[in-house]
Design goal:
By secondary structure, this protein is α+β, with helices and mostly antiparallel strands. It has one domain (1-128): Longin domain (Beta-Lactamase, 2-Layer Sandwich), CATH 3.30.450.50. It is built from three helices and five strands; from the N terminus they run ββαβββαα. The protein has a five-stranded antiparallel sheet with strand order 2-1-5-4-3, with helices on both faces.
Length: 133
């Protein structure tokens, strides 16, 4: 059971953009890591874009399960995990991360934010803490 990606996005007009993300691509071949990470970023944005405000969903993409939660204020979280990772744990993690993110990062920064401008460093910690060995 593994978590591969944890992303926080903003679903604004007209499209979704990434605010912050953490990846664990250590199980992939060194030469595949950057393309796997790009795939996860793209998939996270696509799933958040296609999800309605205030909704939760789990979507199968290739050999991964992508869990998305889009809050009614437009803040969205996506976890990409393997098929065995418990769905309930993923949504608990998303709730916790989005709640903490919205307390630490001003809502005014969401529409224009990017991974380079948003200062929120807890994602890597959560990704490793919720890893099941």
């Amino acid at each position: 059971m593994r978590l591969y990606s944890l992303s926080v996005l903003y679903k604004g007009d007209p499209k979704v953009h990434l605010l912050k993300a953490a990846y664990d691509v250590s199980t992939f071949n060194f030469f595949q890591r950057s393309s796997v990470q790009e795939f996860m970023t793209f998939t996270s944005q696509l799933i958040a874009e296609r999800s309605a405000l205030g909704s939760r969903a789990s979507v199968k993409e290739q050999e991964y399960l992508c869990h998305v939660y889009v809050r009614s204020d437009g803040l969205a979280g996506v976890v990409i995990a393997d098929n065995e990772y418990p769905q309930r744990v993923c949504f608990t993690l998303l709730d916790k991360v989005l709640e903490e993110f919205s307390r630490q990062v001003s809502k005014m920064d969401w529409p224009s934010g990017s991974p380079a401008t948003i200062s929120y460093s807890a994602l890597d910690g959560y990704l490793s803490k919720y890893q099941v060995q």
